[in-house]
Every structure is written in C-alpha cells, then in structure tokens.
Design brief:
Length: 434
C-alpha cells in the first residue's frame, strides 16, 4: 500500500510564518467502542518558514497540533501563543480531521491562537476518609466534545507526599482531573492497577484555581459465575468477562473465566458498565446477567456507590445464525466486502459490543454466528474501516439502506443483500463524527 503525505505551514493571526513550534500527528483509532486520536511518530520541528512535511503515513484520518518548543512565562492579562489544532482550534474536539488516501498528498495550514493561561493546583484525597493520597500521576483531561480523553494539552503531574498537585499554563475550558491510566508511582517505579479512581470536573475561566480537592474512590471487587444453560460440562473455551465503561472517561476491566465458570475482577473503578462475554463456546450467547435481583443484561451495572457486585451470567447454547450473499447490481457477486449486523432496539444498539461483522468470501457469502435473538439491521459496505462500521452514531445514518431481519433463538436465517453503502457516502458521514 503506498504511503501518503501531509504538507503545511504554521502561521500567526496575520498569516506570517512562525518557527518555534513542532507538529504532533494524531491518527484516528477506535478502542473499546470509542474513537480516540493517538499520537503517531515523532513530533516534527517546523523549518525557518514554519513549514512541515509529514511523510510515510498509511491511509486514514488525522488531526494535527502545533506545540510551542519554548515556554513563555505568562504575564498578567497578556495572551501568548498556545498549542493549536488544525485549522485554528484550542481543543481536539473542535479540530478538523484530515482524510488521507493511499499515495495522496494533503495540505494543512495551522493558524495559531493566543490565549491567557492559568494555573490549577490542589490536593488528592481519599473520598471515604478525607486523608491525603500521594504517588499519583494526574492528567488534566479536556472534556469538550466527543473526543475527550484522546490527548491532553498539559503534561501529567505527580502528587507529592501531602497529596498536592500543580498544573501550569492551562487554557480556559472544562477539564477532568484524574489518575493517568490508573497508574501509581511506588518507590520510584510505576505500578499498574491503581486502587483509587475518579474524575473531578473543573472549569477554568479567567483566573487561577487553587485549593481544588480531588476525591478518589477505592476500587471494588466484581466476582461471579457463568452458568451454561442445559449443560453440566465445564466451559470448553477460555471465555473472558469484560466490564465496558459507559462513560467516555472510564476504562474497561476484564478477567478470564475458570473452567468451573467463576471469575473475579479486582479493583474496578466505581462507575457504570455494560457486561460482555468474549470467546464463548460455538453456538452460544449471553442470555441473562444479574446482580442480586437486578437484571443487568442490557441495563448497565452501576457500581458508583462504591459497593462491589456478584454476577450470575447465563449462557445459552441456542444462539441464532445469519447467513447470506452480497451482490452488486452491476457486477454480481461482491467478494471481500464487510457486512455488519446491529440491534434495532435503542438500548442495545447504543452499545458497540452488541454489533457483529463479517467479510464475504470469494463467492460473496457471509456467516454471522453466536447471535442473541432479536431484531437487527444488516448492511453491506463497499469500502469501510471495520471499526467505523460498527460505530452506533455513524451506522445510524445508513438505517434507510439496511435490511431488517428477525432472529429467534436457535434460528438460522438466510438473507441476500443487493445494495452496498458506497465509499463516498461512508467518507462523508465519517467526517461528521471523527
């Protein structure tokens, strides 16, 4: 596949080139059902005319941010140039993405923004006892728009012995203060799986923030058992229970299931989660999940009170199957195209984990297995990123082109698809959400 290039220039508000900036390239990627822009490659210093050339890019969608290479000490009521996203945005959610096709060149001019900056300082405490918590690496995460959590304009800071922290050069906006990837610093070395979690919202306007208290909650334990309906034998595959965070600021937790069906997930953040089971036995599906007397099959599991849960998950061996063929109106059989299946029920379709996908073989045929009973929309795509095709917001734009099917428990339904979503239509809709 041929590589692509983005060329451009960094200019000030008058259109004059500026030099003391470097360019960070961010690539759109989908992880755990959420879109993120992840830094790729090494930041590139602009030349003496503010120009840059980013080469060897694989096709995709990108955002660019110009970052100052030299810190200017802020003065009262004086605005300075700050990190600016293409074309001239302070936050990644407001930035425009740049589509790059294989072997093509794209151009981008970044017009810098000036802003006053402020400081945010405070202390991290235990939400239960009020005691200071030290040893955390904190980030100040912008919460505007759909891409919060993708990149932070301020470097992470460590809390010191009394739990205090100090962020410098913060531009006005809304933020979440939280542990960075839930990592703790212990005796000078990092340790994954922090035992405390939380997101504290702050609004920076026109002055410094001091004495900010960030309460973190201790993680909880979630344990349970998978029960195979109408079967006494142990699980035949290595299944995994995953708790998928409902909040875009949250993270997922998972644990392997033992052969006796039991599992335990330690130090889970006190938030809301959807329950998924991966690597189920062939022909099976998650039928019910409950926590005490609460049905959490579709309704999220709520751990926000700080109390753990014991789950009972029933697996049915009577999953449905959808098979079919895809045809192009002009050329007949459509080989190697993506087919997606998603529930029509609003409460289920908003969960990316309920979507299914498969590619057609050389004969244009596809098979979608291990499906819960219910009503679905099914679509075939000319050319599409697999992860984008299962994004609920994106996919809803093509509901009118989809076929509706009804699956009962244990059924095997055949459906032929004779319309494909065009590549141009997919790109147009993708530009609205990424």
């Amino acid at each position: 596949m041929p590589y692509s290039v983005i060329e451009g220039q960094v200019v000030d508000e008058d259109g004059s080139p500026t030099t003391e900036f470097k360019i960070t390239t961010l690539r759109a990627t989908r992880s755990a059902g959420r879109w993120k822009y992840i830094a790729t490659g090494t930041p590139l210093k602009v030349d003496d005319m503010g120009r840059f050339r980013i080469a060897n890019l694989l096709p995709g969608r990108f955002k660019l941010v110009a970052v100052p290479t030299r810190r200017v000490e802020p003065a009262e009521n004086i605005a300075n140039y700050v990190s600016t996203f293409y074309p001239s945005s302070l936050f990644i959610a407001d930035a425009e993405s740049i589509p790059v096709d294989g072997g093509k060149e794209a151009r981008a001019t970044i017009r810098l923004r000036k802003e006053r900056v402020f400081n945010v300082q405070g202390k991290v405490i235990d939400a239960a006892s009020g005691a200071a918590l030290s040893g955390f690496l904190l980030i100040l995460n912008p919460t505007q728009g759909n891409h919060s959590g993708s990149i932070t304009p301020n470097a992470p800071v460590s809390t010191v012995r009394d739990g205090s922290f100090y962020f410098k050069d913060v531009i006005p906006g809304s933020y979440s203060i939280e542990p960075s990837n839930m990592v703790m610093i212990v005796n000078g070395s990092s340790r994954l799986e922090s035992k405390f979690f939380g997101h504290h919202q702050v609004m920076v306007k026109d002055h410094d923030l001091s004495d900010v208290l960030v309460p973190l909650q201790a993680g909880v334990i979630v344990r349970g058992k998978l029960i195979q309906q109408a079967q006494d034998k142990p699980l035949s595959t290595k299944s995994v229970v995953r708790l998928s965070a409902v909040s875009s600021l949250g993270r997922d937790f998972s644990a392997n299931v033992s052969t006796d069906g039991t599992f335990e997930i330690l130090t889970v953040a006190p938030e809301q989660y959807r329950i998924h089971v991966l690597n189920l036995p062939e022909g099976s599906y998650l039928k019910t999940a409950s926590s005490g007397d609460q049905d959490v099959t579709i309704t999220p599991l709520d751990l926000s009170s700080g109390v753990g849960a014991t789950l009972a998950i029933t697996i049915s061996p009577k999953a449905a199957t959808a098979t079919g063929s895809v045809y192009r109106e002009s050329s007949g059989i459509a080989a190697d195209v993506l087919v997606t299946l998603a529930p029509t029920d609003a409460s289920r379709r908003s969960d990316p984990g309920t979507s299914r996908k498969a590619r057609t073989d050389q004969n244009g045929q596809f098979v979608l297995k291990n499906l819960p009973p219910g009503e679905y929309r099914i679509l075939a795509w000319e050319e599409i990123d697999d992860e984008l095709a299962v994004d609920p917001e994106f996919r809803s734009a093509f509901d009118a082109q989809s076929a509706r099917i009804e699956l009962s428990e244990g059924s095997n339904l055949h459906v032929d698809l004779r319309k494909l979503v065009s590549e141009d239509s997919a790109k147009f809709e993708a530009s609205k959400i990424r």
